[in-house]
Design brief:
- Keywords: Hydrolase.
- It contains five helices and seven strands.
- It is α/β, with parallel strands linked by helices and 211 residues long.
- It has a seven-stranded mixed beta sheet, sandwiched between helices.
- The N and C termini lie far apart (42 Å).
């Protein structure tokens, strides 16, 4: 089993306290550089971009719905990587309302879990084919208030990795914690990101936020 070495690729605008920041989390087997390429299709010309790289290209070794101990210590280490990144941005004066999280597949699951354990008013969450992590959801781990954070969460029906039922469970919890969730289930969609999902993400990224 493994833990993660800190390795974050940056792009976009230089960071200032007034920056909007998009944190992009890649999926299993992918790279930070590959998820950054998605930014070419998003309205983030004025954003600072951060993409952490998973050691061994995987944030945890087994399914996100496996018993939690099977994915340790990699899972806790991955969550710590995201927390270090976000708390570091906050420490440099960036408002949480200007921090956006985007992930695909395993990266969407990790982003879902991190954000729900540290709920606050983010700029937005874009969770392309993902949901909260665990064989059963441990609701005692979820803390805070999303305070109206816009959330886009998607999956295919069926999807080989992320069942519709887990997305629906995730939506219920996030809404109870104050998120404004847009859920999209695409019949027969392969394990990918559709143009419609990109369009919905653009709406979140283009919405006015704190300055």
């Amino acid at each position: 089993m493994y833990t993660h070495q800190k390795n974050v690729i940056t792009a976009g605008k230089p960071l200032t306290p007034d920056s909007k920041v998009l944190v992009m989390v890649h999926g299993r087997g992918a790279t930070a550089q590959s998820i950054l390429e998605l930014a070419n299709h998003l309205p983030v010309e004025e954003f600072a971009l951060y993409a952490p790289q998973a050691t061994q290209h995987s944030w945890y070794p087994y399914s996100f719905m496996a018993p939690a101990d099977q994915n340790q210590p990699a899972l806790d280490s991955a969550l710590e990587q995201l927390d270090d990144l976000v708390t570091g941005l906050l420490a440099q004066g960036v408002k949480s309302e200007n921090i956006y999280l985007l992930g695909f597949s395993q990266g969407a699951c990790l982003s879902s879990e991190y954000a729900t354990r540290h709920a606050k008013r983010y700029g937005g969450l874009m969770l392309f084919t993902g949901g909260l992590i665990g064989q059963q959801l441990e609701t005692s781990s979820y803390q805070g208030d999303f305070a109206g954070t816009p959330v886009l969460i998607t999956t295919g029906d069926p999807d080989p990795h992320v069942p519709v039922s887990r997305v629906e469970e995730t939506v219920i919890i996030m809404e109870k914690m104050g998120a404004k969730v847009t859920q999209k289930i695409y019949k027969g969609r392969p394990h990918t990101i559709l143009q419609e999902e990109i369009t919905l993400a653009k709406e979140i990224l283009s919405s006015p936020t704190a300055r």
